[in-house]
Amino acid sequence: MKKGCRYNCVPTTSTTTGCLCACLSGCSQPLLELVQQAPWISWPKISWLLFVFFSSDIEISRAQSPKAVDVLAKEIGLLTDEIEIYGQTKAKVRLSLLERLKDQPDGKYVLVAGITPTPLGEGKSTVTIGLVQALTAHLNINSFACLRQPSQGPTFGVKGGAAGGGYAQVIPMEEFNLHLTGDIHAITAANNLLAAAIDARILHENTQSDKSLYNRLVPVVNGVRGFSAIQLARLRRLGISKTDPETLTEEEISKFVRLDIDPSTITWQRVVDTNDRFLRKITVGQANTEKGLVRQAQFDIAVASEIMAILALTTSLQDMKERLGKMVVANDKKGEPVTAEDLGVTGALAVLMKDAIKPTLMQTLEGTPVFVHAGPFANIAHGNSSVLADKIALKLVGEKGFVVTEAGFGADIGMEKFFNIKCRASGLVPSVVVLVATVRALKMHGGGPNVTAGAPLKKEYTEENLQLVADGCCNLQKQIQITQLFGVPVVVALNVFKTDSPAEVDLVCKIAKESGAFDAVPCNHWSAGGRGAVKLAQAVEKAANQKNSFKYLYNLELPIVEKIRIIAQKVYGAQDVELSPIAQSQVDRYTRQGFGNLPICMAKTHLSLSHQPERKGVPTGFILPISDVRASIGAGFIYPLVGTMSTMPGLPTRPCFYDIDLDPITEQVKGLF
A Pfam family matched by this chain, by name (predicted)? Predict the structure, then answer.
């Protein structure tokens, strides 16, 4: 029996230390024989260990009774009138809190990113939760986790939920992973209202005269005709200063009522929060009532909506309303942008989003606070939780506290966008980056066999192979270099699995430190909760006090193509970029329309540094193909589509929903993970 345990899995009161994890990770001794030879091992400890290793995340979540959310709110300094309670375990937090705490100094700001992942994910959410549990529950340091709300696409598709896992997760995990407080539903409703408004406006303009349109848009009510506030704003944008509807000339009426949307330029798509590949290309307007106004369109997944990006980047209700109005949905027949404000729908969108703008308060398994807010994907959007959640949390933890947030997928995607997009919007400067790695992913990058969701891992991933690990550390080294481009200290968190050997763990930490990481720490939070991430928390605390020379990667004033090229070459390692004729045309159009000084949000596969998912490690010498370029003007970025990137995922042969069920007696959800 080995002495001590790198998993810290079983506390013992005996002077003879030992553990049981060996019997679950390669020990050949039968469990009964092990117990007979080691009298310090009790059957309750065995039961506990078996629960750790063989219980699902949802079973672990249910084994802990969360504290009432009003108690949690009081513990972290929220006033009664600053929360809106949803059930027993969730609450919305009002933005008025920012005004009350405006003079409170901010805490330290920590970003959790990762190496290029396998399709299984490498545990960034778990590390985030383990880290805040270690800081608050074990080191008595105020901390807050800020996470994205998971989309129901992956929850019922391949990847499962995003609440963390094991003993480092947000609870109740079924509430976290399903509807939560309805924010994604609000985004879906707002997005699709705007989509409906676009097609309806095209129909009405094609079937009515100027006079008929004007009479319907500005009707006589109780004998009085008047413009609404949003219509007056449109008149001002058109250079018409009149406020009396009866005084407009025929020419002014025509300018007012005609948006003249060019259907071929519509970029606004309908959304649904389900992976549905058959909605990637659809035809709308086929009913006879739509007068032959047929066009091809598509659905995106809801979290790819620009409204989700706006929710994540906005700083206030007024700012959100202005951003919603600026969203460009199409061009008119003269090539000028048409916005949500032009369609008169801004106020309605703001009404649908008025509750979604408030972060949702939840808790970890160890009772530490978590904000869940916004959920843009990192491969097809900017992949970070909300600015507002971060700002509120930074005030609540105080000057010596820590706010830990997570960027989606690898550092080349989520972290790059965190720095170049989110930090520009918020004005916040990160103190340290935690870069999550796993031996499993490093072996894949070192030439190991393909990792496929739902398929058993090959023996290369379950047996010690130092050469594969060493070869795969090139990806870890590259991600450390990417972090250093922004001048922020980096701590590597090695998320340890039971199949990792001590030699493999030591090798990864050694290479990480030699490659410029401030520190590299093995983490066992999945099996031990916050206790398994205490060393990581101590390393992060030290790194946060290091000199920080944060800088952006590019100047916003550079041309769009040059900004794309900088990201491709400095971050991905591409030789150059190549724009399709469509992409170049869009770049020229956005530049002409005055949108050239926005940051870039690359839509690219997360499974490789390149545009080809099968190329692992650190690909070089490739030309990055830009197939299209779109603009999210309200959110405030240009997003190029790399290669064949899709904004609507599909379901696999065996989706997660096969295992999800509801007990009709207890009403408990089964099978979520």
Answer: FTHFS
Residue 281 is among the residues annotated as catalytic for this protein: no
Whole-angstrom distance between the N-terminal and C-terminal Cα of the chain? 33
For residue range 407-440, what is the model confidence (pLDDT) as tens digits?
988 999 999 999 999 999 999 999 999 999 999 9
Contact 478, 609 (CB under 8 A): yes
Answer yes or no: is pLDDT of 45 > 80.
no
Considering 62, 159, 258, 670, which one is annotated as catalytic? 159
Whole-number Å distance between alpha carbons of 166 and 147: 17
Does the active-site annotation cover 314?
A: no
**Stated pTM of the model:** 0.90
Task: Given the residues 126, 136, 274, 368, select the one marked as catalytic.
Answer: 126
CA angle, residues 440, 656, 131, in degrees to nearest 5: 50
Burial code of 255-270, b = ≥16 C-beta within 10 A, e = fewer? bbbebebbbebbbbbb
What integer is the mean pLDDT of 473-498?
97
Asked if 124 is an active-site residue, the reply is yes
**3-state SS assignment for residue 600:** strand
Q: How far apart are CA 372 and CA 170, in angstroms?
A: 10
CA distance 145 to 149: 12
pLDDT of amino acid 201: 97
Q: Residues 94, 124, 234, 443: which is the catalytic one?
A: 124
Other C-beta atoms within 10 Å of 447: how many?
Answer: 14
Catalytic status, residue 526: yes
Residue 374 is a catalytic residue: no
Q: Is 422 a catalytic residue?
A: no
Q: Report pLDDT digits (tens) over 587-596.
A: 999 999 999 9
Pairing of strands 369-372, 83-86: unpaired
Residue 12 catalytic? no
Residue pointed to by tokens 């589509």: 641
